[in-house]
Amino acid sequence: MMAFIPYMDGAEPYFHAGGPVGCLVLHGFAATPDEVRWLGQHLAARGHTVFAPRLPGHGMTPAALRRIRWEDWYAAALDGYRLLASICARVCVVGHSMGGLLSLLLAGDCDVACAAALAAPIELHAARRARWLRFVLAYTDHSDRSGFPARLREEQARRGEPVRGRVRYDRWATQGVAELYALSQVAHARLPLVKAPLLLVYSRNDHVVPAGQMSIVADRVASQIVERHELHKSGHILPQDCEHEKVFQLVDDFIARYG
């Protein structure tokens, strides 16, 4: 008998059939498509075709990330791109955090119209130790004790949505963190391959990915068009924090110009 695999409430992927511009929207590490759902809804309301996949190992149980390699995440992102490319005239990729790293890889490997990376951790020095820590410690606790979950629940209630807070893992598989570090290394090395118009959005108040990493990305890509925007109030979860409407408008305007 096949074992039952838990599926977190709200972790499902989503697709919206729209116009000729396809938008691939990618969530971050240990999170789910719910993290970028509002962003996807915003782009769909603008008439775009939107697909936000659930990346492998996410939205089920933390143990699932112990079986995943970074190539699995990239393969899923590439599948999403190919799907949209088969039904849309042009494809734009938008990713948050780890999803931003995948967006940068796609922009270097595929014919994307434009790409947006939101708080992409191109340098993950703190995650480096996971390469050896995974052999002695299977999981680490990453419960969110900041004020962000309360702000998120308040916004969910205001929108009339289920008040579920963050749909993500509080326990992180150390093996998964090691793969995230490997992904950041690959993305960093391949930045010179990125030639598409690029939007970078980081926050000065982000204590997970310093805003200074935006310059690292901008200085290494080959894109002729690189737009940089620095926020000042948001934490790391840009698509859901207090400046999410500004983030949506930045992405929307960028796609309108280059998508």
List the helices and strands and how they pair.
Elements: E1 14-16, E2 21-26, H1 37-45, E3 49-52, H2 70-87, E4 90-96, H3 98-109, E5 114-118, H4 130-133, E6 139-141, H5 148-158, E7 171-173, H6 174-189, E8 198-203, H7 213-220, E9 226-231, H8 244-258
Parallel strand pairs: 2-3, 2-4, 4-5, 5-8, 8-9
Antiparallel strand pairs: 1-3, 6-7
Helix pairs in contact: 2-3, 3-6
Description:
The protein contains eight helices and nine strands. By secondary structure, the protein is of the alpha/beta class. It has a single domain, classed as 3-Layer(aba) Sandwich (Rossmann fold), CATH 3.40.50.1820. The strands form two sheets. It has a seven-stranded mixed sheet, sandwiched between helices. It has a two-stranded antiparallel sheet with strand order 6-7. It is globular.
Task: Quote the CATH topology.
Answer: Rossmann fold
Low-confidence stretches: none
**Residues in β-strands, percent:** 15-25%
Structural class: alpha/beta
Q: Percentage of helical residues?
A: 25-40%
Helix-strand string: EEHEHEHEHEHEHEHEH
Q: CATH class, please?
A: Alpha Beta
Please identify which CATH superfamily we are dealing with. Answer: Alpha/Beta hydrolase fold, catalytic domain
Strand order of the largest sheet: 1-3-2-4-5-8-9
Key words describing this protein structure:
7-stranded mixed beta sheet; about 260 residues; 9 strands; two-stranded antiparallel sheet; alpha/beta; globular; about 15% strand; Rossmann fold
